[in-house]
Amino acid sequence: GSFSAPLGWLAVVTMITGVLGAAYHYDVRRILAFHSVSQIGYILLATAIGGTGGYTAAVFFTLHHIIVKANLFLIGGLVQRAGGSFDLRALGGLYRTQPLIALLFAISASSLVGIPPLSGFWAKWLVVGESFAAERYVWGAAALAVGGLTLFSMSKIWIEAFWKEHPNPPAVSAERLPVASVLACGTLAALAIAVGLAPEALIEVLQA
Q1: Angle at Cα 143 formed by Cα 141 and Cα 148, nearest 5°?
Q2: Which bin fits 172, alpha (ψ -120 to 50), beta or left (φ > 0)?
Q3: I need a labelling partner for 202 at 20 to 30 A (CA). Which of 65, 103, 176, 190 fits?
Q4: pLDDT score, position 167
Q5: Are 183 and 53 in contact (CB under 8 A)?
Q6: What does the alpha-carbon distance between residue 161 and residue 84 come to, in Å, rounded to a whole number?
């Protein structure tokens, strides 16, 4: 319709501004919140393309985003609990003290970036594929470029919070995290893997 082109360009601007905001910040909560803005851009883009393919891509991406972003916010809370701060510059060493949380973050962050075989790969594959099929090549290229910047800020969290040495190591041993919270994060990470390994069933339901 007449709104599809303006909505598509608005989606591109939303994706780019969101991911640039995420790249700028060092607070885990702000990084993840700006990525939510960016990911909504992908959903708007698929909606702008429309048709069965576009709407299927939009809903698939929405479901993927609910699973993965919820998990990243929960893991962000566990990072603060284990490391004592949301500021990446005050964190470090969690890969050694909280290896399970590091693994769950790596899975969820990889899915957000769109690395196969996780849910985010298929979510972005559908959106980019529909963009190119509709001959909206600039939209598709923007979606791919934003994926690269998403990798940058997820890598920043990984390096700063998990990999580098803690700038001021606490004297006490690592805090035990609530089992229920860790289980919740593990369940959501498993969902991201399951959707990524077998996306066909969900795609078929959405297309119907």
Answers
A1: 95
A2: beta
A3: 103
A4: 87
A5: no
A6: 11
Helix 28-49 and helix 51-83: axis angle, to 10°? 180
Q: Show the tokens assigned to 69.
A: 């972003």
- What pLDDT is stored for residue 23 in this prediction? 93
Helix axes 51-83 and 99-113, enclosed angle (nearest 10): 160
**Using an 8 Å Cβ cutoff, are 161 and 94 in contact?**
yes
Question: Within 10 A of 202 (CB to CB), how many other CB atoms are there?
Answer: 18
Residue 165 has, within 13 A of its CA and on its CB side, a CA count of 3
Distance, CA of 66 to CA of 102 (rounded, Å): 20
Of residues 10, 13, 14, 32, the one with CA closest to residue 23: 32
171 by Cβ neighbours in 10 Å (0-12 / 13-18 / 19+) ranks as exposed
Closest CA to 143 of 2, 33, 44: 44
How far apart are alpha carbons 77 and 82 in whole angstroms? 9
Q: How many residues does the chain have?
A: 208
Residues of the chain with pLDDT under 50: none
Distance CA 25, CA 40 (A): 19
- The residue with tokens 């769109």 is 114
pLDDT at 3: 75
Sequence-ordered alpha helix ranges (H) in the chain = 4-24, 28-49, 51-83, 94-97, 99-113, 119-133, 137-157, 179-197, 200-207
What is the b/e burial string over 67-105, where b = at least 16 CB atoms within 10 angstroms of the residue's CB? bbbebbebbbbbbbebbeebbbeebbbbbebbeebbebb
